[in-house]
Amino acid sequence: MKIQAVHELAQYPPVFARESAAQIMGLPLVRIPQEVQTVISPNNNGGQSNYGVHRISAVAGDPPPWEMFGLLVTPPPQTVRDLAVRLPLSESLPAMDYLLQRKILPGSPINTQLTFSETSVQDSLAPLLYGVQRRRVLRVLEVANPHSESPGESVSRAFMIEYGFPLPVLQSLFTDREGLIGRTDFHWEEYRLIGEFDGYEKYSDQRFLRGRTPSEVVVTEKNRENRLRAKGYNVVRWVWRDLKDPRRLAQLLSEAGLPSTIRATTGARG
């Protein structure tokens, strides 16, 4: 509503950037800032804020904005780049993971039905003035994984990286004598460990319930977990509440037998 209000009240159509652009194009965000973010000409002084709008100097050399849902936005590669430049890994990785899934973003211009790869993001780095900015984006790009299926999984992986845990394999398929058990969110074969992030939508959204009741889903998940344990795997689960403090996830993984290079008590953040 704030973004639409800024658009309607502006004398000239504003170009939305950063988290505001990500909201418009459907890229996942962990936090939404109070201020609406727009870009202005590089020749003007950036960083101005008033009336709930944060005006940022555009990056000289960036391509023209896209129009999505009737609003002007920085193009998707530039948007995830800008998030990676200024946000911690746990907040920038979800958008990067999602962009690399090579899906056409809803609202994309008809003549710009593009999907994006690592190269698209790498190309967006050329106009950046400072090496530290490029390094921050490359760090996010290096660990991004299009197999991540939810923002919660991306945030979880970011915390694993920050605490020095081994990188997991995503979406591994498991079978037993009964047939397919299913895909797991995280899998460390060396440690015979499986990690599962449980988003609340699994038990409330009809897309995931598929006609079942939440209690039926719980029973199905329990049976699935028992079959994985029967194959010799330990299973550790966590929810959004556990991600509010990354030390909680680090503790759960450590107690499950996964080694790390950073103690959970340090509260390290990237």
Descriptive notes:
The protein contains eleven helices and ten strands. With 270 residues, the protein is of the alpha/beta class. The longest helix has 17 residues. The two termini are 31 Å apart. The C terminus is likely disordered.
Rg, Å, rounded: 21 Å
Report strand %: 15-25%
Broad structural category: alpha/beta
Strands across the major sheet, in which order? 3-4-2-1-6-5
Gross morphology: elongated
Number of distinct helices? 11
Nearest-integer average pLDDT: 89
Multimeric status of the protein: single chain
Profile the largest sheet. Answer: 6 strands, mixed
Number of strands: 10
The rounded distance between the terminal residues' Cα atoms is 31 Å
Q: Percent helix among the residues?
A: 25-40%
Features:
270 residues, alpha/beta, 39% helix, disordered C terminus
Question: TL;DR of this structure?
Answer:
The chain is an alpha/beta fold and 270 residues long. The protein has helices at residues 2-9, 18-25, 76-86, 89-99, 118-123, 131-143, 151-162, 206-209, 214-230, 240-243, 246-255, and strands at residues 15-16, 36-40, 48-50, 53-57, 66-68, 71-73, 169-176, 179-188, 193-197, 234-238.
SSE layout and pairings?
Blueprint: H1 2-9, E1 15-16, H2 18-25, E2 36-40, E3 48-50, E4 53-57, E5 66-68, E6 71-73, H3 76-86, H4 89-99, H5 118-123, H6 131-143, H7 151-162, E7 169-176, E8 179-188, E9 193-197, H8 206-209, H9 214-230, E10 234-238, H10 240-243, H11 246-255
Parallel strand pairs: 1-6, 2-4, 9-10
Antiparallel strand pairs: 1-2, 3-4, 5-6, 7-8, 8-9
Helix pairs in contact: 2-3, 3-4, 3-6, 4-7
